[in-house]
Amino acid sequence: EPDVTIVSGLKDAVVSEGDDVTFRCQVSHENARDVEWKLQDVALQNNEMNEISVEKGKIHTLTLRKVTEQDIGTVTFRVGSHTSTA
């Protein structure tokens, strides 16, 4: 299996409380396995507050819905041994 790398990393975002924010990270290969999103070192799951998806096979997205002050912190995307933070 080829080593999947990050082609385009996360960008910092500033949003108002109650708004949604989306983070995108592009990887080198489709169907990447061993992918993980974290907020403040806590692994995120796909649920009503966090929407995790893949667009066009290579663009991994995380949308945090109705953010609050508790959501302030570092977002991390990891694929294999590669990471990107914002």
UniProtKB/TrEMBL annotation:
Keyword Oxidoreductase: no
The UniProt record lists the keyword ATP-binding: no
Top-level taxon of origin: Eukaryota
Keywords assigned: Cytoplasm, Disulfide bond, Phosphoprotein
SUPFAM superfamilies reported in the protein's UniProt record: Immunoglobulin (SSF48726)
InterPro entries: Ig-like_dom, Ig-like_dom_sf, Ig-like_fold, Ig_I-set, Obscurin/Obscurin-like_Reg
Domain Ig-like: 2-86
GO CC, alphabetical: cytoplasm
Protein name: OBSCN protein
Organism: Sinosuthora webbiana
Gene (UniProt): Obscn_5
